[in-house]
């Protein structure tokens, strides 16, 4: 359907079409035509939708994500042994290291560790200022992997590191990390 292709390209009339169609289906998209609406329009049975009013702000409408600190936020595409591909997010934490959730890289239901991982720094929709970068290796906390279910213990160990095959962090910048000896001390504080 030509209208759906125009939605993906952001044609003004297509935005109105997507908004009207989404609202008619009980979805209230934000002022930005977001990927959930486009995905829903392409795959109406996919279950991808936003319920209720979406008050998120699409940062790419206000800043260029090619600049720090937004450039240090990455989109991650991970393909698993069963052939399914998922999208997650992470943050550059070194020249070639990305910090992400363990469940982005390991899923027992999908065959274990992801077999292909691609990182896209500064991504905003179809805008990919640094291109796509393949992972050289991935690591997931052993406790998370050993649990093989999303138990409370696993939730406390749901993190992973992606090592990239290039030092793109020297261009994008990276976020600093630190160790907190007493995480309970952060309860009720903005961090």
Describe what you observe in this structure.
- The protein is an alpha+beta fold and 191 residues long.
- 25% of the residues lie in helices and 22% in strands.
- A six-stranded antiparallel barrel has the order 1-2-3-8-7-6. A two-stranded antiparallel ribbon has the order 4-5.
- Strand 2 and strand 3 form a beta hairpin.
- The longest helix has 13 residues, at 12-24.
- The chain is globular and about 40 Å long.
**With helices defined by DSSP (H or I, 4 residues minimum), what is the helix count?**
7
* Element order: H for helix, E for strand: HHHEEEHEEEEHHEH
N→C terminal distance: 45 Å
Structural class: alpha+beta
Task: Give short descriptive properties of this protein.
six-stranded antiparallel barrel, alpha+beta, disordered N terminus, 22% strand, 191 residues, single chain
What does the secondary structure layout of this molecule look like, with pairings?
Blueprint: H1 2-9, H2 12-24, H3 35-42, E1 73-79, E2 85-92, E3 97-100, H4 102-105, E4 106-107, E5 112-113, E6 116-121, E7 133-140, H5 142-147, H6 152-155, E8 160-164, H7 169-172
Antiparallel strand pairs: 1-2, 1-6, 2-3, 3-8, 4-5, 6-7, 7-8
Helix pairs in contact: 1-2, 2-3
Could you give a short description of this structure?
With 191 residues, the protein is of the alpha+beta class.
């Amino acid at each position: 359907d030509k209208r759906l292709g125009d939605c993906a390209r952001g044609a003004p009339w297509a935005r109105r079409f997507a908004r009207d169609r989404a609202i008619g289906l009980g979805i209230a998209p934000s002022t930005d035509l977001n990927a959930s609406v486009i995905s829903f329009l392409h795959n109406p049975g996919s279950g991808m939708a936003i319920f209720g009013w979406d008050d998120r702000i699409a940062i790419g409408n206000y800043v260029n994500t090619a600049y720090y600190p937004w450039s240090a936020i990455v989109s991650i595409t991970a393909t698993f042994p069963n052939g399914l591909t998922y999208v997650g997010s992470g943050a550059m934490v070194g020249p070639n290291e990305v910090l992400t959730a363990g469940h982005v890289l390991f899923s027992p239901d999908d065959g274990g560790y992801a077999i292909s991982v691609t990182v896209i720094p500064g991504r905003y929709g179809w805008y990919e200022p640094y291109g796509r970068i393949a992972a050289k290796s991935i690591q997931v906390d052993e406790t998370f992997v050993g649990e093989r279910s999303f138990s409370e213990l696993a939730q406390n160990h749901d993190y992973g590191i992606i090592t990239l095959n290039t030092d793109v962090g020297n261009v994008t910048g990276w976020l600093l990390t630190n160790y907190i000896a007493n995480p309970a001390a952060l309860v009720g504080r903005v961090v």
